[in-house]
């Protein structure tokens, strides 16, 4: 048996209420800006007693699942609600949880039965840290790794497992090095340009352009210690995870040039940094990571889960090709490269879209442009508003994903009780709100409609609802209608995505010319392929290890700025459309001056 899911993971991400004060010119009085948006990031996942437990920043609780498919939220007030990057690991038959505090000692909590809400503080903490990761080695010795800064490194220390006091002096383990690690360079597509919105401008003014090194996670595999870390910053499409390896938990560590191993800079939703690597009960490896939207606020983020593993040479990898298309989650051991996809393609790319109304600058085409950072918005109250897509001809549909967006909710949401007076920046979590109710209907001819999902019988909060049809259907028209929306906001949709099988054939193969243009960069060019919707660029350190990928549309050139200096690379360009994917032949990246 297997199930089909689709990233981003459809969780009831909590709404954050962030209010910032800034001086008003000529008055000296604070001006308050308010943003209300969903946030879920920094996922820490473990398998504990046959169940997955996932802790996520700013969630006031955690999620649990028996199958990585259906996640159930469990609220608790026994853990800090507003501490970022919660970490969970199993130590001696119990779960231990900690999170981030810059200035105060960070407490540790223990639970043997999380669903009984039995969390107890075992120590108020002995020192402050940010982005922690606790690791219990096979010999019972316990270590802590932490760091989240663009100045200081990631540190590691051995802890006393009884008192959580440091047994050793902290060891500096990971520093940023953009001169040799191209993927650590900040900026959209790793280009430092002008800030595109006020949030990017504030972040740039506060932190500059040096990359953050953060989000440590330790994995032990066949005698090697894999210290994973994130860079260059959560607000960029290039947010990714790399790793160092060692024969010892505290090093010395060596950088692995297959880094980054988790990277998703293109497609519908981008980013795949600051996460956790874990196994299921069948021995399959998975990697959970942070995906970004970052439009209402830099921390407007989601969670993605990807097939992962170690190859025969011990190289850690993630399969993130088409990583926001439907994905198989089997109930058995499986091959993460050949069995991860049901081979359903996107049928709705740039299809004809119409709507009941549209806010200026937010037309219905933005719901089918494969960009989670832009969205259609109804011009008026959400109830009764609708969005419709015409696929052009009947096609076989297998699933529909409905991605809701949040538009100007800071003007509509009521006050949040978590918030006190505004000074610099104050955050709160909405404890309660009414989730969206959205009807989904399909039609063969645009006249007779079949409701394939009625959320009035399933009113859970589902901002990225993925509906797998009971049986494949021949469909031309897809319509969604709002019945209720959070805070009575406008109906806003970033992606109405229909997956299935087209009526034609896949595109021809693309042939790439790749030239090294600098120590950490390469220029890739290929001829346009007739009938292709886009291209999936795969690259790596050998023709059989093209583990990284980058999906692009409308372009036949990619400036690849994510390479490691001193390493040779191979690249292939796969052309795709609604009928399938045609793999390109790997070509070695040419070094013109070698």
CATH superfamily of the largest domain: Glycosyl hydrolase domain, family 43
Which percent bin holds the helix content? under 10%
Which spans have pLDDT < 50 for at least 5 consecutive residues?
Answer: 23-30
Shape summary = globular
Output the structural class: mainly beta
DSSP E strands, number = 43
Cα radius of gyration in angstroms:
24 Å
Report mean pLDDT, rounded to a whole number.
93
Q: How is the main sheet built?
A: 8 strands, antiparallel
Classified by CATH, the class of the largest domain is Mainly Beta
Q: State the end-to-end distance.
A: 52 Å
- In total, the number of domains comes to 3
> How large a portion of the residues is in β-strands, by DSSP E?
35-45%
| Overall CATH architecture of the largest domain | 5 Propeller
What does this structure look like?
The protein has 594 residues and is mostly beta strands. The protein has three domains: 40-330, Glycosyl hydrolase domain, family 43 (Tachylectin-2, Chain A), CATH 2.115.10.20; 345-501, Galactose-binding domain-like (Jelly Rolls), CATH 2.60.120; 512-588, Immunoglobulin-like (Sandwich). The chain is globular, with a radius of gyration of 24 Å. It starts with a strand and ends in a 6-residue tail after the last strand. Mean pLDDT is 93; it is low at 23-30.
